[in-house]
C-alpha cells in the first residue's frame, strides 16, 4: 500500500514510517526542511515538500496515495488557536479529497478532553465539536465522513508516548525537575496518565491502517494509568533529586505549559483496541524507560 504520512519525521511519525516500510508498504512523507527530506530518503521513503498550510500539497499527496496517515500538528502552545485552525483545515482537505474513494484516513487524536473521573474507553465520544474547540474538533469532523466512502480511523494517543529521544510532555517535566532541583507532582499525585512506548504505538497505527473498520476509535495505550506521583518518583530516582508535592496553584509556575496537562487525568483503557487488532505491547513501561535513563 502506498501511504502518505504527515509528521513523517516527528517523534511518532518517524517510528510509524519505519514500521510501514518494514511491513512492505511504500511511504511518501511530508517534509518541511532539507534535513527532514534527507532523513526520509535515507530510509527509502519518497518525499513531498510542504507543511500543514500547503493545502494544495496535502491534496496532491492524498490523491497520489492509497491511504493517508495524518500525524502532523503545529503544537504551538503560545497560539493554540492557530494549531487548532491548521489541524481542522488539513483534516477538511483530506476528507474532501478522499470522500468516495474507499481509502483509509488515519488521524492522530488525543485523550485530554475525554476525562470523566474514570479511564476513558473507546466508546467515549470527543466533546470537541466545531472549529473553535480542542484540535479544531478534527476527530468529529473526520468521523462525519465515515459513511461517505472514506475509511476513517482515529488514533487516540496516550499523553506519554515515551522512549529515548522523546521531546514531549515528559521531557518538559524532566526539564522542570532539572531547573528546580526537585521532581514534582501536583497535589496528592493521584492524577494519572496513560502511556505507551513509541515502537508499540507505531505498530498499532500500522495495524489500524491495515485492518480497522471505518469509524474506529483506537486507543494507543499500553498502560492505563500511571500516577503523576509514580512518574515524579521515577524522575527523582533517575536524576538523583528529591521528590516533592507542588500545590495546584503553583503548577503553572513550576512546570510551565505542561502543568495544566500534568494536573489533568488522562487515563484510558485500550481493551477494545487490543481485541480488535490483536495488538500486544512489548516495549518497556513508562517508569522502566525513565529509570533506564531515557530522559537523563
Automatic annotation (TrEMBL):
Domain (NAD-dependent epimerase/dehydratase): residue spans on this chain: 3-210
Gene3D superfamilies xref list: NAD(P)-binding Rossmann-like Domain
Pfam families: Epimerase
Signal peptide: none
Annotated GO CC locations: cytoplasm
InterPro entries per the UniProt record, alphabetical: Epimerase_deHydtase, NAD(P)-bd_dom_sf, NAD(P)-dependent_oxidoreduct
GO-annotated molecular function: aldehyde dehydrogenase (NAD+) activity
PANTHER family: PROTEIN YEEZ, PUTATIVE-RELATED
Protein name (Swiss-Prot/TrEMBL): 3-beta hydroxysteroid dehydrogenase
Amino acid at each position: 500500500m502506498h501511504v502518505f504520512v504527515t509528521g513523517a519525521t516527528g517523534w511518532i511519525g518517524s517510528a510509524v514510517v519505519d514500521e510501514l516500510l518494514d511491513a512492505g508498504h511504500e511511504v511518501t512523507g511530508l517534509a518541511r526542511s532539507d534535513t527532514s527530506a534527507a532523513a526520509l530518503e535515507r530510509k527509502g521513503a519518497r518525499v513531498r515538500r510542504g507543511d500543514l498550510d500547503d493545502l494544495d500539497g496535502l491534496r496532491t499527496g492524498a490523491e497520489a496515495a492509497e491511504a493517508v496517515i495524518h500525524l502532523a500538528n503545529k503544537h504551538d502552545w503560545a497560539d493554540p488557536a492557530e494549531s487548532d485552525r491548521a489541524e481542522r483545515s488539513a483534516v477538511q482537505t483530506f476528507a474532501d479529497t478522499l470522500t468516495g474513494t474507499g481509502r483509509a484516513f488515519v488521524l492522530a487524536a488525543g485523550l485530554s478532553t475525554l476525562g470523566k473521573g474514570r479511564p476513558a474507553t473507546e466508546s467515549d465520544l470527543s466533546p470537541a465539536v466545531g472549529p473553535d474547540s480542542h484540535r479544531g474538533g478534527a476527530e468529529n469532523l473526520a468521523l462525519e465522513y465515515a459513511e461517505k466512502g472514506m475509511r476513517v480511523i482515529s488514533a487516540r494517543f496516550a499523553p506519554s508516548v515515551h522512549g529515548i529521544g522523546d521531546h514531549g510532555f515528559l521531557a518538559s517535566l524532566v526539564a522542570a525537575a532539572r531547573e528546580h532541583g526537585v521532581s514534582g507532582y501536583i497535589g496528592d499525585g493521584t492524577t494519572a496518565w496513560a502511556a505507551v512506548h513509541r515502537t508499540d504505538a507505531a505498530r498499532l497505527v500500522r495495524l489500524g491502517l491495515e485492518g480497522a473498520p471505518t469509524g474506529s476509535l483506537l486507543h494507543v495505550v499500553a498502560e492505563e494509568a500511571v500516577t503523576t506521583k509514580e512518574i515524579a518518583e521515577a524522575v527523582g530516582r533517575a536524576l538523583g533529586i528529591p521528590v516533592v508535592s507542588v500545590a495546584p496553584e503553583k503548577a503553572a509556575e513550576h512546570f510551565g505549559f505542561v502543568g495544566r496537562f500534568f494536573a489533568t487525568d488522562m487515563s484510558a483503557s485500550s481493551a477494545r483496541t487490543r481485541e480488535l487488532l490483536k495488538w500486544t505491547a512489548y516495549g518497556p513501561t513508562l517508569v522502566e524507560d525513565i529509570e533506564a535513563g531515557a530522559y537523563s
